[in-house]
Amino acid sequence: MNIGEASARSGVSAKMIRYYESIGLIAPAARTASQYRVYAEDEVHTLRFIRRARDLGFSLEETRELLALWHDRSRASADVKKLATDHIRDLEAKAAELQAMADTLRHLAAHCHGDHRPDCPILADFAAAPAMRDKA
To answer: Which of 11, 51, 65, 129 is surrounded by the fewest CB atoms within 10 Å?
Structure first.
């Protein structure tokens, strides 16, 4: 199948497929005599694997590790679990940071009158020096 078909069947854009090839995440596709890329079902399966890992927030390097573990039939599942639990910890830390940002903005928005006056606690907070913000 061509790159467009592989893209449609895997859910990975043609641009990303070419990028993954360029960084060595996937092997270069076979080429026709006219240099068009040709993909087999195994390669589409690999692209789906990558798509799922990326959808779950794994970095390219983590995805590379997961691919290596997936292809290594002698690997221990503990290696995969460690990578997954480390990623869970990172996701939870990011979620806590995002929640703190939302809480801060919610607080600032609640204290903004939202009227015709120019004074705005949101902008005042953004402009304040870090030491002044910490006191608030």
So the answer is: 129
Residue 131 domain flag: no
Q: For residue 20, is it within any domain?
A: yes
Give the separation between CA 124 and CA 3, rounded to whole angstroms. 51
pLDDT digits 0-9 by tens, 6-64: 999 999 999 999 999 999 999 999 999 999 999 999 999 999 999 999 999 999 999 99
CATH code, domain with 50: 1.10.1660.10
Name the domain count of the chain. 1
70-103 confidence digits (pLDDT tens): 999 999 999 999 999 999 999 999 999 999 999 9
Question: Cα dist. 134→11, 96, 128 in Å?
Answer: 45, 19, 10
DSSP secondary structure of 9-36: HHT--HHHHHHHHHTTSSPPPEE-TT--
